[in-house]
Specification:
Layout (H helix, E strand, L loop, with lengths): L9 E3 L6 E7 L7 E6 L3 E6 L4 E7 L6 E6 L5 E6 L3 E6 L6 E7 L9 E4 L5 E6 L6 E6 L3 E6 L8 E7 L8 E6 L3 E6 L4 E7 L7 E5 L4 E5 L4 E7 L5 E8 L5 E6 L5 E6 L3 E6 L4 E7 L5 E6 L9 E6 L4 E5 L9
Antiparallel strand pairs: 1-28, 2-3, 3-4, 4-5, 6-7, 7-8, 8-9, 10-11, 11-12, 12-13, 14-15, 15-16, 16-17, 18-19, 19-20, 20-21, 22-23, 23-24, 24-25, 26-27, 27-28
């Protein structure tokens, strides 16, 4: 018989609202950091050394924060709220000020996607004011690059993922829609490259492994859908895995492409081997829906953590090298 799953190595409390989004930055400064965004509009910066909040940022007028990320230097924090704004924060030299903002016009729950460019600037993809519209904006100039909208009625944009191929072409964008469609866009050409039906229900979340050219998406149903991108940029459904319970909030692939973590509506975090999608662990701690998962990017594999944030207002930190995981 398999042993029960271990408890989290520690828990962060005090976020004051559901934990919609988590983001690690372990490469800059003396202390590895975890950023969280809550349903009450607060952004917490947690020190993983002291396991306490270093700062609390309020920049979205109490509106739910649905996405946070950092630029490579970690001096710039980017946050998205349901106040239809993306805020750019200056965190350099101890500051915590909103230096600029971008108005998206979107009141939905679609998280932005950001990608660094060789020029030192970055691209931001966000849902637009119109139902199926996606806006691509260059930062920090806030220059509008393009607007992408499908010919057919696919419903709301639900999730986005920018990606830069190694060879040749410019940025590509994966977009999941309310009708279950998944589209691949060529940002430079403003054109659709490929389209598949990934789910019978809305595509709630997705992520993409740029090393294997393989992605995975989740929905409100019991199915995880995996798909491949061939050398001609054609999307192809690869496999479907049936979960025990329906509903996936978020998916995250670890940086080494070995593990996939799933935030479940059933209050559980599920960990899979990414190569064959074999179930490795079911992590049970939260008392409400798990909304977010993130792997730390620490350079030392022994210090890599998995974080999960829940509607129960708690963040749990798991050592994914601990023994005693429940396989199933």
């Amino acid at each position: 018989m398999s042993r029960p799953a271990p408890p989290p190595i520690y828990t962060l409390r005090g976020a004051g609202g559901p934990l919609n989004t988590l983001h690690f930055n372990c490469h800059v400064g003396d202390s590895p950091l975890l950023f969280s965004g809550s349903g009450k509009g607060a952004i917490h910066i947690w020190s993983l050394t002291t396991r306490r909040t270093e700062k609390v940022l309020e920049g979205h007028s109490g509106s739910s924060v649905i996405w946070v990320s950092t630029r490579p230097s970690a001096d710039v924090l980017v946050s998205q709220g349901r106040d239809m704004q993306v805020c750019l924060w200056d965190l350099s030299e101890g500051r915590s000020e909103v230096s600029d903002f971008v108005w998206t016009g979107s009141v939905g729950f679609c998280q932005c996607s950001m990608m660094e460019l060789n020029s030192g600037s970055c691209l931001l993809a966000c849902a637009g004011q119109q139902t199926e519209e996606i806006k691509i904006i260059e930062l920090p100039s806030k220059t509008k690059v393009c607007t992408l909208a499908p010919d057919a009625k696919l419903g709301m944009v639900m999730c986005l993922k920018l990606w830069q191929p190694d060879a040749g072409s410019g940025p590509l964008l994966f977009a999941g829609y309310e009708d279950g469609s998944l589209l691949l866009w060529d940002v430079a050409q403003r054109s659709k490259l490929s389209q598949i039906t990934a789910h019978p229900e809305p595509v709630m979340c997705m992520t993409f492994d740029t090393k294997r050219l393989r992605g995975v998406s989740g929905s409100s149903d019991k199915n995880l859908s995996t798909w491949m991108l061939d050398r001609q940029n054609n999307l192809q459904i690869q496999d479907c895995v049936t979960l025990v319970n329906p509903g996936v909030s978020q998916l995250c692939i670890r940086e080494d492409s070995k593990l996939l973590a799933l935030a479940g509506w059933d209050h559980r975090v599920r960990v899979f081997g990414w190569k064959k999608l074999q179930p490795l662990a079911v992590l049970q701690y939260h008392t409400d829906m798990v909304l977010s998962v993130a792997f730390s990017d620490h350079q030392d594999p022994r210090q890599r953590l998995l974080a999960s944030g829940s509607k129960d207002q708690r963040i749990s930190l798991w050592s994914i090298y601990s023994e005693g995981t429940n396989t199933g």
